[in-house]
Input
Amino acid sequence: EPEVTQTPSHQVTQMGQEVILRCVPISNHLYFYWYRQILGQKVEFLVSFYNNEISEKSEIFDDQFSVERPDGSNFTLKIRSTKLEDSAMYFCASSEGTKLYGYTFGSGTRLTVV
Amino acid sequence: GQQLNQSPQSMFIQEGEDVSMNCTSSSIFNTWLWYKQEPGEGPVLLIALYKAGELTSNGRLTAQFGITRKDSFLNISASIPSDVGIYFCAGQLGNQFYFGTGTSLTVIP
Output
């Protein structure tokens, strides 16, 4: 079964450093998403991306965050200057279209900011 | 953001028992979904509900989309140890999912 792949599974970074979280969406999917989940809390939407541009973003997705599709397979989330409160699981997801069909989450990257 | 409240927050049940959890919101959603999340993993879709009043089953799982489109319940019959995990409801608006606060399920063998 097709999977959304995220790397690394766990990243530890110092406060103030830049991090890039990587995702390989399912190959025929056109819509890409990032969500985050602070430990013990609910999953929260960050951003959706289609046709090489952001289509929606939440209030969490401020100027410290950016997304990019640098090539035909990867989808990245960059946090420019990490803060302690950025520590969370970050989930990538992808879907074929605007409906639910095939909407699939990756296993997540656990980001720890120290 | 949209608020979806789930209850109960946690459940401890004996293997074989039935489970019921629900989700309510002040907002109307087009679609309601139920996900299960296991430790260190991403959410996995269990059931999707598309129409108000819809009742859908997936094996031992049954879920209903409330008539008002502001609530949903999930039932699990004859629980087994592998049902352990956190169950999230989610409402869909556009391409975005709004997740509930989660119900943690522990099944005691």
Observations:
- Chain A has a mean pLDDT of 92.
- Chain A touches chain B at residues 4, 31, 33, 35, 41-45, 48, 50, 55-56, 58-59, 91, 93, 95, 98, 100, 103, 105-108, 110 (CB under 8 Å).
- The two ends of chain A are 36 Å apart (CA to CA).
